[in-house]
């Protein structure tokens, strides 16, 4: 197939050529002479006008010069005619005195005009001059005995004609200025010609003024008067013309500099001077290149300027730019120079502007429209992009470090490929940094913002009223039926700032939806506040409103829960280990997906044999258990360590722990497993919230603390859980509750203090806790059967039989139960909505495995004996994080990490808490219960 060819006019002289309506896509006009060419309505997409010379032809220049001279002569004629005619009519029988007075009056009016125009706009100046003229008119009417109104009318005529003279002269001068492209020599010659032209016009006007006045007065004037009147009027006209020429030059210079008072004159002058220049009127100049082109006296009005490059273009200010973004001098300067560091463009229309490789560092673009613009390679470091409209904007290779992106509006057409960024801020004034610590790896910025581009972010700085939000969502959804409008996530950012992310359709007007949601939320909030003020008159009414508020929050959370698309940005990683054990190695299947969705990536690999892992873990386990002293939530058999100091036991435990950590990393960084690890690193971002499920039936591997893998140091929001390879999702009864229902079993407390656990549970917000203190088996069984529970909690003594992986827990001083002995009751509890079991007791792996067989969604347990103080500290930290709205996995990781503060007294406390997860279930947040 033949390659497409484009018209090549490079370096050619195309003066006056007619290209109207032609399709010149991709044409090359570089270095061409296109003065006077007509491109009206032409299609010039991707055309190259680099270094081209546009504007007026030589004929056009001389035509405008001649027009200038004609207009100046006409102005001079009026300047001579007006005062002579006025004075002659008013004082027909005086030879000198009254004519001199008339001259003084006219000159005084001109002086008032001059003084006023320097500091005021034209309308104000006209008003003052007319008032002055009326005053002189009445005064002269009294002096001459004539009717005052007639005198005033005549003076007004004089003033009007004088002002007309001034305007014509200004216009003439501007035309001359616009025509100067032919060079300074022609400009000087024209100036010298224009001055005598004005004098000639003034003299002609004087003579004709006398002749016309004589007709009006019946021709009865003395011959001497006629001669002297002409002489005096000619001298006066010449004198006034000289003064006015200099003054008009001053005004013209102010116009040339862009004085706002004369902007309409400048537009008029540009319109006239572009009549014979190059025309791009209504042309399609998408992606055209005008860099370094000379563009004076061209017409770009109504042209389509999308990504049109005007870098270093000359004289663009002297072009007709109506209905384009370049009509704004600030935007025009930015388009030409591409330098705007620390400049302010709040609310500006930059739609379609070409700012490739521009310096926009620390520029304020708040609420600006940069849709369809191109910022390829631009520097936007520290720029404020709050609420910008960036639909179909190209940011390829742009530098975004430290930019503020609060509520910016982007969609699937926004190009973010290759963005260079260390970190950004999601809230103004450098708040809500992303990533929270460290910097983005290559490509992470793009992945982060492309995940959620079809959303609208609502930022509430004074907390969130869920009922008002629910009302606003409902109303806006009804008014915008095709906009999707599904709540995606609610994030508590601290300091009473809440961010609600709402899914919207890809083609929806996000700015409109954002404005409607914000407005309707404020209206609903005011309505609720008024309602609360009216109804909060008694304690009973307060309780009713509080419960209603919680029910509304529950309803809103249910809107978030049903679909996978509304689960936020959590990633789910599954490592399924099958066909092997630690002695033979494992076959591994890696799956990666978004929370609640089918995996979008799957790969297979292997892990090598690691029999030494189990051996070293047993060595560490022995040393760890021997090092424990004080209250434990387990009964450990006494060992012969009486002759060994506790410090020696700690050292032995440290040695085994160091070896264990080393072996874990050697195993998971092995060459055999490396392809899967590299795929993890490629598909995941350090800023991602990640749940990792280790699916295995190997009882030894379940005990190994795999969170020691250096992968988790790089991914601070990742947490690992153990899981079975066989699982099932049980149908649950749906029951809306205003509070989280917790069944707390406080079992055998001999030798430990579980009252602190009780105090922590009692302080939970929005929770209804039922305590069973050392209950009998039948009482526990009945409670599990009769009520619907969200969380099951146990504090007391527990243990696991290592060989059989059977866990038991002591519910009182005499009774010890296994999960199997409560199987029916626990199965019923799970069917009625039990989602989470927390066993804040020792050695709970057996309990976790047994509960997993009943398909409980998730369980938290301790992998080894736990000191009483460690158990209490973990429970406090976990419940604080989880009840404040933080995800379950991140709450556990945070609570586990905080235990490091106790490790000088209780070594390796951070190794103890573990999650056991049903892969078919998605962990609920606290408010979702």
TrEMBL record:
Transmembrane portions of the chain: 61-88, 100-118, 125-144, 150-177, 184-213, 233-257
Protein name: Pentapeptide repeat-containing protein
SUPFAM superfamilies documented for this protein: Pentapeptide repeat-like
InterPro entries reported in the protein's UniProt record: 5peptide_repeat, CHAT_dom, Pentapeptide-BTB/POZ_domain
Keywords: Membrane, Transmembrane, Transmembrane helix
Keyword rRNA-binding: no
Domain of life assignment: Bacteria
PANTHER family (UniProt xref): BTB_POZ DOMAIN-CONTAINING PROTEIN KCTD9
